[in-house]
Target: Deoxyribodipyrimidine photo-lyase
Amino acid sequence: MLTPRPVIMLFRDDFRLADNPALNAAHASGQPVVCAFVHDPDTQRPGAIGWWLNQARSALAATLREQGGTLLEVEGTTPEAVPQLAKIFNAETVFWNRRYDPTGKAQDTQTKATLEAQGVCVHSLPGRLLHEPWTVQTGSGQPYKVFTAWWRAVRDMPPPGRCVSAPRTLTFAPWPKAAHALAEHAHTLPPHTLPEGANAAEQDWPCSEADAHDMLQEFIENNVARYSQERDRPDKDTTSRLSPYLRAGLISARQVWHAVEDAVQKHGHIAENAWTFLSELGWRDFAYTQLFYHPTLATENLRPEFNDMPWQNTQKLLHAWQQGQTGYPLVDAGMRQLYQTGWMHNRVRMVVASFLTKHLLTDWRKGEVWFHNRLVDADPAQNAMNWQWCAGTGIDASPWFRIFNPVGQSEKFDPTGAYIRTWVPELRHLPDKLIHTPWKADPALCRQIGLHLGKTYPHPIVDLKEARAVALAHYKNLPARQ
Ligand code: FAD
Model:
């Protein structure tokens, strides 16, 4: 009997065995499978996200080893490396889950054309989102521009398809000599290290498919029932913390959706909170819809009137913001949490982004780049959409004149200062009332608790009232608005 030709399963940002449509289809072909990953210099990101994706890939490789297989890692650009692999293995078909970012889309189009010219079939499947961007449209066939309308349309649609289980036993294709040589080369590539100072990330983010499901279960059991009330409270820290796992595809959005829906079926009283949570997952899809239709989401204002914004881009202020040394405790707590752990609570992300763009009049793209380098969940769609949302430059964005007051936000969402005390320890002995405004503390009290403003903790780097007035005036004077 003739040995069947192998098929290739190409992993990228979908480092899981369960609910992985491309892997499932490769397995269902009944042919031996080559599990492959390309170290592609055109799509690799530096920073914490590079480290995190590397961890996720290693976890997948370990799981495959337990099943008697090996993840074949090769170096090269995807459009060159994948057709080369197909030749080496004489593969019949290549399977992958779809990408939606401009580089990924362009690469996949090119790779598919080359493979098909070689006589190799390509199957690209939907594995990343709840719904493909082009399947949620207005009555006139246009993409939605407003989230609430998009979300209403999603809720009127059938739920995302049911999840598929991990293949029970994968049949791995034997490797020819040339494949071993490529794999050996890939093993000599330098490791992705965490950026300087992100020492807490390793212990904060256990990395495997099983860890992702443990996080989800813990969230469902303990926190989903109070999500609406507590999701804005960084001091409580009760959101799911699933973003890095979704980013690396250690868990799928569909798995999260159905697990939460199943919990609602069993415990009806959590329904309202559960739907608020699912709507956040909806924002993730909505971000991908924006990126799909606006490939320059991370680099161009979606509202062109902002092209004339006279950003001040003062390097000293940007540096103080990056280092968590602005003199505004909530901003500094958030920026230090980001620096040390690779993650920041959503409410605080909004506050620091508003502060950078409006009070410091710094171009949102500088914040986007900094976040992309420091976040373990750095995502091309979610990061870009949210920065444009906070800066008011995006579609369905928070308007420019909505300027968060970092003190008011701090008093409201971290009332006892517990979050600030964790990340800004030099303020921890201040009473609750003063922790949001250390500059108001009596000098005698400061001496007593060892707080030396201007030395151990900075004075505020801008005056909130003045900075706000300047930000509003700049917007009012934009030529396109005249
Ligand atoms: P939960 O509250 O438990 O929400 C569940 C999931 O819903 C999240 O894991 C995430 O996938 C999705 N989600 C939640 N809020 C949003 C949102 N506002 N937009 C899109 N999806 C959302 N999220 C990223 O995953 N990667 C990023 O690079 C990123 N950059 C951001 C930059 C800024 C300036 C802001 C304001 C927000 C950004 N977010 C980003 C969105 C949000 O802050 C994080 O998804 C959230 O804090 C992750 O924590 P969680 O998993 O506990 O969220």
Remarks:
- The beta strands are 7-11, 33-39, 72-75, 93-97, 121-125.
